[in-house]
Specification:
Layout: H1 17-34, E1 37-38, E2 44-46, H2 47-54, H3 59-63, E3 66-69, E4 75-78, H4 83-92, E5 103-112, E6 124-133, H5 138-154, E7 160-166, H6 170-185, H7 193-201, H8 216-219, H9 230-245, E8 251-252, E9 264-272, E10 282-289, H10 292-295, E11 303-309, H11 310-319, E12 332-337, H12 339-354, E13 359-361, H13 368-377, E14 382-387, H14 388-393, E15 395-400, E16 406-410, H15 414-422
Parallel strand pairs: 1-5, 7-8, 12-13, 12-14
Antiparallel strand pairs: 2-4, 3-4, 5-6, 6-11, 7-9, 9-10, 10-11, 14-15, 15-16
Helix pairs in contact: 1-5, 5-9
The chain binds one RNA strand through residues 4-5, 7, 58-60, 63-64, 81, 111, 113, 115-122, 125-127, 129, 194, 208, 210-211, 258-259, 278-280, 282-285, 307-313, 335, 337-338, 367-377, 380, 383, 385, 387, 389, 397, 399, 401, 404, 406.
Amino acid sequence: MSFQIPRGTQDILPGETEKWQYIEQTARDLCRRYNYKEIRTPIFEHTELFLRSVGDTTDIVQKEMYTFEDRGGRSITLRPEGTASVVRSFVENKMYGDPNQPIKLYYVGPMFRYERPQAGRFRQFVQFGVEVLGSHDPAIDAEVIALAMEIYRSLGLQKLKLVINSLGDAESRKAHREALINHFKQRIGEFCEDCQARLEKNPLRILDCKKDRDHELMMTAPSILDYLNDESRRYFEKVQMYLTNLGIEFEVDSRLVRGLDYYHHTTFEIMSNAEGFGAITTLCGGGRYNRLVQEIGGPETPGIGFALSIERLLAALEAENISLPVGKGIDCYVAALGEKAKDESVIIVNQLRKAGIVADKDYQDRKVKAQLKAADRLQAKYVAILGDDELDRKVINVKDMNTGEQTEVPLHSLVEYLKERLR
RNA sequence: GCGGCUAUGGCGAAGUGGUUAACGCACCAGAUUGUGGCUCUGGCAUGCGUGGGUUCGAUUCCCACUAGUCGCCCCA
């Protein structure tokens, strides 16, 4: 009997995990600097939460959720995204009462969507995300976008494209929606099936259609930007001004439609335009949601956030040929020959470790030659060689694996000797 | 959910309807019984994703399944 990993999931093995840790650490450090605090919420929630927040006409809800009934008969769903949980927690823990407003949060963790896996798409994937609750200052929109860009930049990514758009407030959205329906309604028969279905349910999404992209009505379709009321337009202009002042380049794309229903005003996407990145281009998506908190049962509170996938970030790094500075080798390998020396090596390795030196030894009963080979494979900077005769004389041979030079060092000063050289 | 391609040792990869499944890398051992990275010698798949079928005989042909991969939809 043998087992296989479930479809669309992956094991992250040593050699890879270091990269994950490095990325997560980079993101955490930046969040610290921007003064965002980590929040940890459950990996599953009541299904109803996602129906409410993500929107029941979305693909996520309609065909991608991992939903099951628990033993108590409750409908439970593995979270497909992070915002709903954060907002739920914000409301449930009455964070709106906290005097430190806005509440600036970040999270990292696995998300689940039942999709057919392909390049950059998994059933379990890890998102790093940020949510700011309680501010409707366009400057916070810019800050959130800047933070996202900063994460990519500080990992070395260059080939990025930031696209922003505004969906406006409820009034603007409504006016635009009507204009879209009027625009397409007469000739909707010329469009694909999906678009026909979208006309009444979510006409905004027609603009996102890949098939009918070149239809003449697409070219002439009313742009949301022309339907923004004064307040919405001013808001969007402010966001753009702040981004410009921060030196962040962007493109405005009035066709940028995000997949979740809860967005208002600012939406944005960061894409990779590296060669050979394949069909997946979106690294990060986010936007403002001013009605979501109310929807979940809290007081009227504006919010904005983004989520990025670590898997896609890694793919982008690979596409740009960037290798992360993750430490691999060890400081010292202790090679022992002979029964007594082996026993002693257990103690020596322990002493080295206590002194902060990355140390290891042989546990395979290998011969000296093979121990040296193992040390080489582990990229050990030094090998401390101990035989019974050295042990009798209370010394140890330290070999510098770069130069091949070997020095006899008194056992009691081995730690000092190595620390001196490893600095 | 739909379509194309793929599935051989730890990894990469050749191959054939028929008695021993190339090769390369990695690994292990020896040359060198206390010293790595180079060299040489030897070792390393009772098995060709899983299950059926065709056949005297299948890893090779057919079907299904599973998985991977690419694309569509959509998204992170």
